[in-house]
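Researcher: Go.
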Amino acid sequence: MANASEPSTIDPKEAAHFGKMAADWWDPKGSSAMLHKLNPVRLKYIREQIDHHFQTDETSRTPLAGKRAADVGCGAGLLAEPLRRLGADVTAVDAAPENIAAARLHAQGQGLEIDYRVGSADTLDGLYDLVTSLEVIEHVADVRGFVGGLADHLAPGGLLILSTPNRTPQSRLMMITLAEGLGQIPKGTHDWNKFLTPEELCAIVRDAGLDVVDVEGLSFSPTRGFVLSENTSLDYFIAARKA
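Model: Structure:
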């Protein structure tokens, strides 16, 4: 459980903001509608990285069987549930108690056993083969401390996957001016100045003792929606391994 000596990286204002969204987190037309649109692309990237990193059978429905996975900043479980279905023993944590309550209720309704906890990486115990934290790092109070906490709980040979918006004019236009301005994302969700470039985040990940193995963009196509891309100007993934 939590180590009392570890400082928290949680920003209370951010936790409160996302806690207010808990009630309709699983509604694809609610305040988290954008995450529902992102999720298939996120899962595609994660599955590709799992198969490559762990050398698993890409046709297997449970490539994470026998492995421990942690999802940090899990919201109401949009990623934790698919990780459990892929066979992992999943621990999922979030700073907002309202989100964890919604996550537990939904998982129970799906018959899924997931260890949900309130907090951040400091509430994890032991080591995990896979650690994910998607669209979270731009909301934490201490980025270096947060990444260090994730790395500390990654097992040797383990895989870390992060995603976050890039700090570019394109992301300001798409995610704040348009998405928040038009109500597609709740206003106040993002602070553009807290966005990190891939170069900045890769440096932080390496400073935490991990090897960056992949960087891939997540872009938006008017005809196809969100897609994986070489273009990192809007949003991107980083995959890293622990030696």
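Model: Residues 76 and 103 are 4 Å apart (CA to CA).
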